[in-house]
């Protein structure tokens, strides 16, 4: 009898604790909703389905748990299973009440309606990339500076001129790696793409300066999407220090360039740095040092990381799919075979005629989804799919959900370049570089770099990935935990 009462007491205690916990959990989540929704009055009834999570941390624990697992799709899948495929969900992420949009139609609306939605990056990203960079800049100023800086990055003449430099660095790097034994493939690719982008910005600086800039930028990038915790040991704290060092180095370069412009004997260049120094608007205003530095750091963020990661994944995925590798290699061999006598090196036309390789690159961009989300902020109350997005709330265009939508891409977790045969995605269905007026400013240069690298790799080299079972990390970008330890070997018969 006593044991029965003891068991009953334990059960009662457990039930009581569970009940108290459930009540506290409900109260805590209700508190977060009251803080952000009560002020909306009856309009709150029109909010999208979802929840705002816990006070202060919101839904970040669920987000981190999903993206530190083997299946990051579970984060959005959880909302779909609870609330249906509405394409719009309320959440609390990165410190703000937000709405996540997950379908091509909703993403297209958010990314192309500049009147209703403006950039809304987390405060950490703005502080690290720069208050005066494109990610924070007002629309009219953004249009003006984008117009002035696009030709030196993505223009036909610029891309044609960059090809020999990219080729030279790709060939030298591949040759060097083939003699090094095991390497961190991703680390070496990031060094390569950093060298290229820095050449476009600064023409030539000493190798130690380049190495220092690359090291500091890497630290900065890891903090861009981290939680804004400015304490030793956290990514954001390290990133702030890295930005300070980057700004100091770039400030020295800007100062020296301004001095050289006054010295008729100094070397004359016309790289991105000079372009930014020389820009004069219709009112005669020039950019100050802070504006120039923030724009340069923003371009580094846009044109460096994505190229290196995509090169790595394209090479890995080709290696894992022999039939795709064979077809891609045959196309590149045909390009060399059919070029005019006396021509050495690629032309822009040849790069743009790489029909099958272009499909491989697009499929890699979809499969990897380097940028899983971009941030906007509602400038007014907006009705989207019948739901209210309140003015001031963040809006997260969730690219990864679109690229893994089985209605758009059947069997989305399969790497299948042939899915692009005759397939032209509708607006909002393929967003590796975003969309609308804020489309990634270095998209054409990035694809050119990737195609040139894969071209020469296919012709002359092989990859042996030494740790194919390595854990994959998804934050801040998809990559093997060990940065892809690999051996690069030269083929016995080398093409031109």
Automatic annotation (TrEMBL):
InterPro entries: Cyt_P450, Cyt_P450_CS, Cyt_P450_E_grp-I, Cyt_P450_sf
Principal place of residence: membrane
Entry keyword Ligase: no
An example Gene Ontology molecular-function term: ent-kaurenoic acid monooxygenase activity
Location(s), subcellular: Membrane
Recorded topology in the membrane: Single-pass membrane protein
Keyword Transmembrane helix: yes
Binding sites annotated in the UniProt record for heme: 440
Pathway: Hormone biosynthesis; Plant hormone biosynthesis; gibberellin biosynthesis
Sequence similarity: Belongs to the cytochrome P450 family.
Reported function: Catalyzes three successive oxidations of ent-kaurenoic acid giving gibberellin 12 (GA12), a key step in gibberellins (GAs) biosynthesis. GAs, which are involved many processes, including stem elongation, play a central role in plant development.
Entry protein name: Ent-kaurenoic acid oxidase 2-like
Species assigned in the record: Cucurbita maxima
Encoding gene, per UniProt annotation: LOC111479695
């Amino acid at each position: 009898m006593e044991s029965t009462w003891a068991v009953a007491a334990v059960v009662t205690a457990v039930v009581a604790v569970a009940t108290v916990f459930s009540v506290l959990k409900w109260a805590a989540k209700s508190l977060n909703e009251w803080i952000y929704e009560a002020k909306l009055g009856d309009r709150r009834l029109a909010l999208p389905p979802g929840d705002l999570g816990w006070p202060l941390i919101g839904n970040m624990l669920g987000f981190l748990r999903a993206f530190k697992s083997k299946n990051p799709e579970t984060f959005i899948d959880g909302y779909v299973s609870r609330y249906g495929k509405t394409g719009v969900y309320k959440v609390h992420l990165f410190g703000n009440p937000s709405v996540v949009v997950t379908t091509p139609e909703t993403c297209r609306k958010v990314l192309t309606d500049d009147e209703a939605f403006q950039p809304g990056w987390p405060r950490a990203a703005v502080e690290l990339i720069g208050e005066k960079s494109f990610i924070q800049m007002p629309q009219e100023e953004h249009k003006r500076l984008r117009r002035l800086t696009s030709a030196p990055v993505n223009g036909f003449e610029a891309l044609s001129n960059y090809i020999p430099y990219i080729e030279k660095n790709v060939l030298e790097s591949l040759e060097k790696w083939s003699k090094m034994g095991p390497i961190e493939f991703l680390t070496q690719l990031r060094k390569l793409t950093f060298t290229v982008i820095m050449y476009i910005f600064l023409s030539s600086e000493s190798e130690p300066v380049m190495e220092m800039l690359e090291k500091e930028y890497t630290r900065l990038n890891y903090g861009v999407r981290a939680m804004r915790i400015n304490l030793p040991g956290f990514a954001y704290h390290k990133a702030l220090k890295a930005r300070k060092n980057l700004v100091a180095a770039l400030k020295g370069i800007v100062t020296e360039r301004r001095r050289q412009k006054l010295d008729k004997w100094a070397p004359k260049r016309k790289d991105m740095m000079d372009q930014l120094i020389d820009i004069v608007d219709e009112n005669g205003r020039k950019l100050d040092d802070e504006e120039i530095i923030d724009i340069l750091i923003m371009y580094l963020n846009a044109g460096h990381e994505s190229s290196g990661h995509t090169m790595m994944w394209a090479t890995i995925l080709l290696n894992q799919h022999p039939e795709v590798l064979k077809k891609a290699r045959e196309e590149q061999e045909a390009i060399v075979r059919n070029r005019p006598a006396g021509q050495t090196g690629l032309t822009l036309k040849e790069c743009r005629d790489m029909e099958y390789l272009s499909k491989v690159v697009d499929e890699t961009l979809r499969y990897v989804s380097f940028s899983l989300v971009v941030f906007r902020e509602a400038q007014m109350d907006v009705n989207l799919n019948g739901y209210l997005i309140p003015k001031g709330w963040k809006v997260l265009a969730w690219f990864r959900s679109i690229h893994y939508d089985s209605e758009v891409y059947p069997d989305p977790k399969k790497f299948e370049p042939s899915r692009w045969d005759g397939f032209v995605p509708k607006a909002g269905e393929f967003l590796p570089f975003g969309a609308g007026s804020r489309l990634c400013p270095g998209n054409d240069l990035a694809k050119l770099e990737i195609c040139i690298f894969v071209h020469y790799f296919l012709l002359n080299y092989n990859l042996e990935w030494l740790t194919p079972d390595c854990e994959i990390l998804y934050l801040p970008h998809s990559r093997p935990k060990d940065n892809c330890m690999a051996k690069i070997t030269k083929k016995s018969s080398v093409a031109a």
